[in-house]
Q: What sequence folds into this?
C-alpha cells in the first residue's frame, strides 16, 4: 500500500500503521517506515543520485531534548563510521532534520535479520556454526576499537544481498555499546537483553570487559542451535540435549562461552570464532542464500523490540540472576585470568521504556544521568603511544650477559688462543735440510782457531746454515700468523654476508615482552596484543602464550577476511602433526601445495611451510607455517596472508627469533 501524504503546512506522509514521516530527508526520498521503537525509527529511503535503497535511523521527537540519549545515538554512528568494516553496518551520511532530530544513513539490509530467518525455519547445524563464526569476527572488530557491544541477539544481526547473488552478514545496533575505558569502574547498572546478557551485566557492580560479549556470542550460538535462548545463568542444559545433530564438541565450545565466571570463558571473540572454526567440516558448503518476504527490521533493538506485524519473541525466563559458584573447568579449557575489575560510577544508560515483561529480546537499560552529563571520549580516541609500531633499523644494542636475543643471528666470538699458522689446517712450515753434521770425535771447534784454518772454515760451514734455518723458521712463523689473521678476518667478513639482510621494504618488530622478534613489511604495523590462547585451535596448551601480529587491519585479517598480514603464536604443544594446527589451517577454496621443509639461518627453529594459492575467498594466498625449536620445548604457528606476489614468508622467517614460551 503506497503511503498517504499531506502537503498542508508541512509535508507529512503516513504508512499503513499510521506512523508519520517526511516525504524526503536531504537527498533521500522516504518510501516507508521499516520499524519504530521507543527511542528511534528506521525509514526505508531511496538515494536518487546513486539509485540505491538506504535505511535511515532517526531519533524520536520526544527525546530531542534529552542530551544523554542524543549523545548515545550519535556515538553509535561514530563507532560504526570509525570501524568502517565489512562486518558491521556502515554509516554513509549523518544529518539533522528541520525539527532538530539527528539521523544517520546506512545500507538497507534487504534480506532481513537473523531473527527473521530463525522464525522462518530451524537453522542447519553447519549453517548455524558458520554464521556464529562470522558474527564473532564482527564482534572482534568492535572490541578491537575498545568498545563492548553488550546487546548481541538475533534482531541485531542483518543480512544484505551482494552483487554476485550471495549475501553478507552485518552486525548492527550499537545503541548500548560502551567504551571499555568506562565499563570497568566500581558500579554499573544492569543493561542488556535477558537471556543473552552476561551475569555481570545483570547485577550491580558487575564490571565489564570484552568477555561480556563472549557470553552474548555463546548465548546467540546456543539459540541458533537449540532453537531457544539459554535463559539466565548458570546455563545447565547443553544444546545437544535440546537438538539432535549437536555434538559434544559443540557443547564444549558453546558452554565455555556461557561460563558464569568470565575467567573460564574464551578470552576474546576472536578466540571463540577460532574455536567454532574447528567444528566445521573440512569442506564447508556455502551458506545458502535466503530471502525472506518483506524483511521486518527492529528499529530500536537496544531498548525494546517491536515487530512490524505486532508479534513478539517467545517469552524467556526472568532476569539473569547473580553469579553462581564457579564450576569446575578442566585445565585444557582454562584461559588467562584478568585483573579484578570494578564498575563505572559514572555509567549513563537509558531508561527502560514500558513494555511487555515477557518479551524475550526486550532490552533492560538503566536510567539516564542528569541532564547535560555525558561520557568522555572512548578509548580509541585517546592518544596512546602503545599503539605505535616498534621498528628497528638494525639489531638492538646488547649488553654483555643480558641473555637477550637480537633480531638477526650474530657471529660467535673469536676463539681464544693463537690463530692457525697456515691454510687448511696444515703444519707450520718446516725448513729444508741444512747438511749440518756435528764435528767428529777429537775435533771440537775451538775459539782460538784461526779464521783461515781448516777448523775455522768448517765452523763457518756449519754456522751459516744454522742461521739460515733460524731465519727461515722466524719468517715461517710470522707468515703463518699473518695468513691466519688474514684468513680469520676473511671468514668474519664472509659470515657477515651470510647474515639475513632485512629487505628495504621491511621493518623489525617485536612483541611487548621481547620474546618474539621478526621483520615484516613496513605497510603491516604491529598490533597491540600480548598473548593468544593456543587451546582455541585445539592445541593442548591451556596457558596464554606470547603472540606477534602485524597487519594494516586486524578485522580484515581475521578468518576469511581480505586483509594481508602475519600472525606468530607461541605454544608448548609440539606433538607431531599439531603445527600448524590441522583444524585451523584448512583452506578448502584454495590450491594447496606440498609442504616444504624449512630451517632458520641460525638453526634454532625448523618445520614446514605449506602454501595455499589461487584462493577464491579472502586473500589470494595464505601460507601456514609450523616450527619447533631444536630443544623441543616450544613451537610456533605462523600464518602469512598476502594480496600481492611479494612472497614475504621467507623474509619474515629468516629474521625470526623466539626466546621461549
A:
Amino acid at each position: 500500500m503506497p503511503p498517504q501524504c499531506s502537503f498542508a503546512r508541512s509535508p507529512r506522509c503516513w504508512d499503513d500503521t499510521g506512523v508519520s514521516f517526511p516525504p524526503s530527508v536531504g537527498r533521500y526520498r522516504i518510501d516507508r517506515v521499516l520499524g519504530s521503537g521507543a527511542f528511534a525509527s528506521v525509514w526505508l529511503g531511496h538515494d536518487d543520485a546513486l539509485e540505491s535503497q538506504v535505511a535511515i535511523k532517526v531519533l524520536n521527537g520526544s527525546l530531542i531534548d534529552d542530551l544523554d540519549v542524543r549523545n548515545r545515538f550519535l556515538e553509535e554512528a561514530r563507532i560504526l563510521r570509525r570501524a568502517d568494516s565489512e562486518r558491521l553496518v556502515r554509516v554513509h551520511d549523518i544529518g539533522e532534520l528541520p525539527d532538530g532530530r539527528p539521523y544517520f544513513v546506512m545500507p538497507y539490509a534487504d534480506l532481513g535479520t537473523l531473527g527473521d530467518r530463525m522464525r522462518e525455519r530451524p537453522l542447519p547445524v553447519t549453517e548455524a556454526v558458520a554464521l556464529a563464526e562470522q558474527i564473532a569476527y564482527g564482534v572482534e572488530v568492535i572490541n578491537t576499537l575498545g568498545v563492548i557491544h553488550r546487546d548481541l541477539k538475533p534482531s541485531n544481526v542483518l543480512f544484505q544481498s551482494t552483487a554476485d547473488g550471495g549475501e553478507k552478514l552485518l552486525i548492527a545496533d550499537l545503541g548500548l555499546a560502551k567504551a571499555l575505558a568506562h565499563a570497568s569502574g566500581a558500579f554499573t547498572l544492569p543493561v542488556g537483553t535477558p537471556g543473552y546478557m552476561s551475569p555481570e551485566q545483570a547485577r550491580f557492580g558487575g564490571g565489564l570487559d570484552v568477555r561480556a560479549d563472549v557470553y552474548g556470542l555463546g548465548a546467540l550460538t546456543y539459540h541458533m542451535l537449540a532453537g531457544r535462548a539459554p535463559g539466565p545463568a548458570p546455563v545447565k542444559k547443553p544444546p545437544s540435549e535440546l537438538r539432535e545433530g549437536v555434538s559434544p564438541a559443540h557443547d564444549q565450545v558453546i558452554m565455555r562461552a556461557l561460563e558464569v565466571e568470565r575467567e573460564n570463558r574464551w578470552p576474546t571473540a576472536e578466540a571463540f570464532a577460532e574455536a567454532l572454526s574447528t567444528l566445521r567440516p573440512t569442506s564447508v558448503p556455502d551458506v545458502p542464500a535466503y530471502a525472506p518476504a518483506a524483511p521486518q527490521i527492529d528499529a530500536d533493538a537496544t531498548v525494546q523490540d517491536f515487530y512490524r506485524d505486532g508479534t513478539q519473541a517467545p517469552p524467556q525466563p526472568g532476569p539473569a540472576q547473580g553469579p553462581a559458584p564457579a564450576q569446575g573447568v578442566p585445565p585444557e579449557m582454562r584461559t588467562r585470568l584478568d585483573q579484578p575489575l570494578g564498575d563505572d560510577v559514572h555509567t549513563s544508560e537509558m531508561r527502560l521504556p514500558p513494555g511487555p515483561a515477557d518479551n524475550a529480546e526486550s532490552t533492560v537499560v538503566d536510567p539516564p544521568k542528569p541532564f547535560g552529563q555525558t561520557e568522555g571520549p572512548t578509548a580509541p580516541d585517546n592518544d596512546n603511544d602503545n599503539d605505535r609500531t616498534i621498528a628497528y633499523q638494525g639489531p638492538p644494542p646488547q649488553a654483555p650477559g643480558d641473555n637477550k636475543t637480537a633480531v638477526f643471528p650474530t657471529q660467535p666470538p673469536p676463539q681464544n688462543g693463537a690463530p692457525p699458522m697456515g691454510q687448511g689446517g696444515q703444519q707450520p712450515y718446516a725448513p729444508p735440510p741444512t747438511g749440518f753434521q756435528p764435528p767428529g770425535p777429537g775435533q771440537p771447534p775451538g775459539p782460538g782457531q784461526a779464521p783461515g784454518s781448516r777448523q775455522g772454515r768448517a765452523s763457518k760451514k756449519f754456522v751459516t746454515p744454522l742461521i739460515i734455518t733460524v731465519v727461515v723458521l722466524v719468517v715461517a712463523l710470522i707468515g703463518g700468523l699473518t695468513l691466519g689473521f688474514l684468513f680469520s678476518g676473511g671468514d668474519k667478513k664472509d659470515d657477515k654476508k651470510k647474515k639475513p639482510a632485512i629487505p628495504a621494504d621491511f621493518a623489525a618488530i617485536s612483541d611487548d615482552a621481547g620474546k618474539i622478534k621478526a621483520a615484516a613489511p613496513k605497510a603491516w604495523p604491529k598490533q597491540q596484543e600480548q598473548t593468544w590462547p593456543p587451546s582455541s585451535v585445539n592445541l593442548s596448551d591451556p596457558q596464554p602464550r606470547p603472540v606477534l601480529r602485524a597487519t594494516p587491519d586486524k578485522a580484515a585479517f581475521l578468518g576469511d577476511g581480505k586483509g594481508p598480514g602475519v600472525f606468530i603464536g607461541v605454544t608448548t604443544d609440539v606433538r607431531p602433526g599439531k603445527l600448524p594446527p590441522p583444524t585451523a589451517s584448512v583452506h578448502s577454496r584454495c590450491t594447496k601445495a606440498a609442504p616444504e621443509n624449512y630451517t632458520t639461518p641460525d638453526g634454532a627453529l625448523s618445520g614446514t611451510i605449506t602454501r595455499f594459492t589461487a584462493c577464491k575467498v579472502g586473500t589470494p594466498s595464505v601460507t601456514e607455517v609450523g616450527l619447533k625449536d631444536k630443544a623441543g620445548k616450544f613451537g610456533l604457528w605462523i600464518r602469512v596472508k598476502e594480496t600481492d606476489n611479494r612472497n614475504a614468508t621467507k623474509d619474515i622467517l629468516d629474521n625470526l627469533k623466539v626466546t621461549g614460551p
The domain at 506-658 is CATH 3.40.1000 (Protein Transport Mog1p; Chain A).
